[in-house]
From TrEMBL:
Protein name: EKC/KEOPS complex subunit BUD32
Record-level Gene Ontology MF annotations: ATP binding; hydrolase activity; protein serine/threonine kinase activity
Domain Protein kinase, chain residue ranges per copy: 11-257
Cell compartment(s), UniProt: Chromosome, Telomere; Nucleus
UniProt similarity note: Belongs to the protein kinase superfamily. BUD32 family.
GO cellular component: chromosome, telomeric region; cytosol; EKC/KEOPS complex; nucleus
Subunit record text: Component of the EKC/KEOPS complex composed of at least BUD32, CGI121, GON7, KAE1 and PCC1; the whole complex dimerizes.
InterPro entries membership: Bud32 (IPR022495), Kinase-like_dom_sf (IPR011009), Prot_kinase_dom (IPR000719), Tyr_kinase_AS (IPR008266)
Keyword entries, A-Z: Activator, ATP-binding, Chromosome, Hydrolase, Kinase, Nucleotide-binding, Nucleus, Phosphoprotein, Serine/threonine-protein kinase, Telomere, Transferase, tRNA processing
Lineage: Eukaryota, Fungi, Dikarya, Basidiomycota, Agaricomycotina
Keyword set includes Transmembrane: no
Superkingdom field: Eukaryota
EC id: 2.7.11.1
Catalytic activity: L-threonyl-[protein] + ATP = O-phospho-L-threonyl-[protein] + ADP + H(+); L-seryl-[protein] + ATP = O-phospho-L-seryl-[protein] + ADP + H(+)
Length: 257
């Protein structure tokens, strides 16, 4: 009971940033003098039976935490885990100072923000602020997605909203040529899979997000895919064939409505 009340007190003392269909996102502090954390609270769903809702919430919080932990152990740039209270639907992760890729690239239509796990951002920040070019950014994206897939983690909602570029002032880069890093966020729909099909679908989802959100994005996605190919190595041949098949299925679905 103490854990639950502590989690609720933490939420009530934090600042609401955004709300999606599944979760509310807050900025808070685990201790008065500690660093900021992003709190993802999966609130109760009154349209579900209470026992089912509790079971699903626990499973999804625990599953997201496991995916993040496996990514961290595999060297994927994701937020660190700060606290987990699966019973109350609360996950606390590292607060990423930076900006989402969606707002660093020319934007067209809205791609949707999933569960809304994007911190408040400065509208004045540009790629120049982060010391990188579009080509470098695409390279960083391709590398991180490849590392994630090599760890057999499927993101499930790859969009440019779910990628953050760290502010160079918030950490020390190990590479002076690239003073920032790309961080994958919002693993609420992630799962473990070794299937080539699932990894190809993950890439296709991102390709469609690029096309719907960023005008003339074909060269950008191609650059990302080139970096992905280099990182995954010998696995790319099977992935490329399956991605082509997924694209064909997607086009057929579009034609028939």
């Amino acid at each position: 009971m103490a854990t639950t009340s502590a989690s609720m007190r933490l939420i009530s003392s934090s600042t609401l940033i955004s709300q999606g269909a599944e979760a509310k996102v807050y900025k808070g502090y685990l201790t008065p003098s500690g660093s900021a954390v992003l709190l993802k609270y999966r609130f109760k769903k009154t349209y579900r039976h209470p026992s089912l809702d509790t079971t699903l919430t626990k499973a999804r919080v625990a599953g997201e935490a496991r995916a993040l932990l496996k990514c961290l152990r595999s060297g994927v740039n994701v937020p660190g885990i700060r606290m987990v209270d699966a019973s109350e639907g609360l996950l606390g992760i590292e607060w990423i100072e930076g900006k989402s890729v969606k707002y660093l690239l020319p934007s067209g239509a809205d791609d949707g923000d999933g569960e809304g796990e994007v911190p408040v951002e400065s509208p004045s920040q540009t790629l120049e602020h982060f010391g990188i070019s579009v080509d470098t950014l695409m390279n960083l994206i391709g590398i991180e997605i490849a590392k994630m897939h090599l760890a057999d983690i499927i993101h499930g909602d790859l969009t440019t909203s779910n990628m953050m570029v760290r502010d160079p002032a918030s950490f020390t880069s190990l590479d002076p040529k690239v003073p920032t890093e790309l961080v994958l966020i919002d693993f609420g729909l992630s799962y473990h899979s070794t299937l080539v099909e699932d990894k190809a679908v993950d890439l296709y989802v991102l390709e469609r997000a690029f096309a719907s959100t960023h005008p003339d994005s074909e060269p950008m996605f191609a650059g990302m895919l080139a970096a992905y190919e280099k990182q995954v190595g010998k696995e790319w041949s099977a992935l490329r064939r399956r991605l082509d098949e997924v694209r064909l299925r997607g086009r057929k679905r579009s034609m028939v409505g």
